[in-house]
Amino acid sequence: MAGEIRTLDPDLLDRLTARVTSEGKTVTVPTPLTGAPLADLPVSTPEDVRRAYAKARAAASEWAALSPRERARPFERLHDAILDRRGEILDIVQLETGKARRHAYEEVADVAMCTLYYVRRAPGLLAPKRRAGLFPVATRVTELRHPKGTVALISPWNYPLSLGVTDVVPALLAGNTVVHKPDTQTALSTLWTISLLIELGMPEDIWQVVLGEPADIGDALLDGADYVAFTGSTRGGRKIAEEAAKRLIGCSLELGGKNPMIVLDDADLDQAVRGAMRACFTNAGQLCLSVERLYVQDSIYPDFVDKFVRAAQNMKLGAGMDWGIQMGSLTSQRQLDAVTAHVEDAVAKGAKVLTGGKPRPDLGPFFYEPTILENVTDDMDLCRAETFGPVVALYRFRTEAEALTLANDSAYGLNASVWSRSSSRAQSLAAQLKSGTVNINEGYASAYGSYDAPMGGMKSSGLSRRHGSEGLLKYTEVQTVASQAGWLGLEPVFGMAYDRYADTLSAMLKTMRRIHLK
After folding, report:
1. 185 within some domain
2. Do residues 110 and 96 share a domain?
3. What is residue 10's predicted lDDT score, i.e. its pLDDT?
4. Is the dihedral of CA 49, 51, 57, 63 positive or negative?
5. Are residues 283 and 361 in the same domain?
6. Residue 3's pLDDT is what?
7. How far apart are CA 251 and CA 232, in angstroms?
8. Residue pLDDT, tens place only, 95-146
9. What pLDDT, in 10s, does the model give residues 291-324?
10. What are the E-state strand segments in 73-138?
11. In what order do the strands lie in the sheet with 250-254?
């Protein structure tokens, strides 16, 4: 089902692409909605990357010298500006990703809310902190936070606005400059946001953009970085971690997931089905937090499956830009091939397709039906590898212990979901899941959208966290400054023998412990 598909103003494209550091070579990217050319984007060389770092470093000292409140001003303005101009950025996100408009809006809202959270919290998080000293009164200790320097940020194609901007903003607020490599297919949303922020008062050179394949510019990007933030595949994350370790610089990695959802026998089935629809098929399943393994307790399994399959069959798919479309396209031929291969391999080995299971070229070049399977077994690629498409496997379980074992039996640990009317039952199960975030009676949004709480993965799903205090402080170097009063030295005084000094200090420490216990 196709509706109106708008195009982008050539003058706008020229303004946006001028922000890429490049010697002039270009690559044409298509819109996944139709396959037609969308834009000619500049491609960077290793020398371009080095030039981007030079610009960012030249701007760094002046930017870092500003107070956190001064640095926050253009980003505070971004909250209202991006909401007011949402029509422009929604068109761009849809055209470059192929997602439904409602799913593109999730990115706009995420950027507005996450930015506002850090604007409000950054001054307090970055302020000097008094810490307890070695000796009360005599030792004064202050914790200081300094920017890392220039951060390399690598963001993916599936949520280009959210996963680019919401990682860059805290890095900049912490006083760093950034060299950002968004995926080339979806770079326009980043470039549009930079253009808007410059209108709102952000200095031009603190956020640099380079484009290109990792094989071409990856080494130069990592070589120049003081810290690396990456969202993408587990394979790519391991490579970045190795390179960062060689240079003894820090990195944060949000990687893949094979996320489980557990539906207990006391769950509200209608609510659980609606939640599963969002958790499995938002952005055509191209979401690191998407549910790909769905475990349903035996007694409710038939009813749940009947409701879930009917809901998936009634979804409205399409390539239009109206709000009624419930699921859009995959973003590339590569992703369509990967999803198709997983499903075909599973079916060939005995899996049963309950609905979907086919590409939909009548809708657009990369569309794939929402797909639900049963009888998925360990010998199938679909069972353990991340599919990253609108595909979910259903499994039965008898007891909560069995559900827990099945859900935790994965190399990944990014996100999980538990459904039950009993808060205590769900909370107990959630605490035992080996997953960085767990949502109760929601698929992914309640944990992800709680910006004051850290979000990230366990096991092969990553290192470090975004959101919360860690999402900003990871971009800082912490420094401890301790000032010792001269009247209480850390060695014997007045000619005291060292053994007597040791006796005296030991007695003092024991007294301090007793005072503390009271």
Report:
1. yes
2. yes
3. 94
4. negative
5. yes
6. 60
7. 13
8. 999 999 999 999 999 999 999 999 999 999 999 999 999 888 889 999 999 9
9. 999 999 999 999 999 999 999 999 999 999 999 9
10. 129-131
11. 207-209, 177-182, 150-155, 227-231, 250-254, 462-463
**Contact of 196 with 82, CB cutoff 8 Å:** yes
Contact of 292 with 326, CB cutoff 8 Å: no
| Domain total in the chain | 3
Instruction: Decide if pLDDT at 1 tops 50.
Output: no
**Count of CB atoms within 10 A of residue 468's CB?**
18
Domain that residue 277 falls in: 259-451
The Cα–Cα gap between 48 and 221 comes to: 10
Q: What's this model's pTM, rounded to 2 decimal places?
A: 0.96
Task: Report, as residue numbers or ranges, the catalytic residues.
Answer: 254, 288
| 443 and 302 within one domain | yes
**φ, ψ (nearest 5 deg) of residue 401:** -60, -40
Residue 104, helix vs strand vs coil: helix
In DSSP notation, 121-145 reads: HHHHHHS-EEE--SSTTTEEEEEEE
Quickly tell me which residue has 């360990």 as its tokens: 378
- Output the six-digit token pair for 189: 């949303």
CATH number, domain of 436, equals 3.40.309.10
Residues 72 and 60 grouped into a single domain: yes
Task: Round to whole Å and give the CA distance between 273 and 480.
Answer: 51
Q: In angstroms, rounded to a whole number, what is the distance separating the alpha carbons of residues 392 and 282?
A: 12
Are 374 and 352 in contact, with CB atoms under 8 Å apart?
yes
The Cα angle at residue 175 between residues 213 and 480, in degrees rounded to 5? 120
The CATH number of the domain where 32 resides is what?
3.40.605.10
Could you tell me if 471 and 454 are in contact, meaning their C-beta atoms sit under 8 angstroms apart? yes
Same domain as 188, residue 94: yes
The pair phi, psi for residue 419, each rounded to 5°, is -125, 125
The predicted-structure confidence for 355-366, as pLDDT tens digits, reads as follows 999 999 999 999
Q: Does 458 map to a domain?
A: no
Does 351 lie in the same domain as 498?
no
**Residue 480 reports pLDDT greater than 90:** yes
Closest alpha carbon to 403 in 267, 255, 256? 267
Tell me, yes or no, whether 112 and 225 share the same domain: yes
Q: Is residue 492 part of a domain?
A: yes
The pLDDT value given to residue 518: 65
In three-state secondary structure terms, 394 is strand
381 in the same domain as 245 = no
pLDDT per residue over 190-248, tens digit each? 999 999 999 999 999 999 999 999 999 999 999 999 999 999 999 999 999 999 999 99
CA pair distance 93, 259, nearest whole angstrom: 25
CA proximity to 263, closest of 272, 253, 271, 250: 272
Token code pair at residue 277: 């629809």
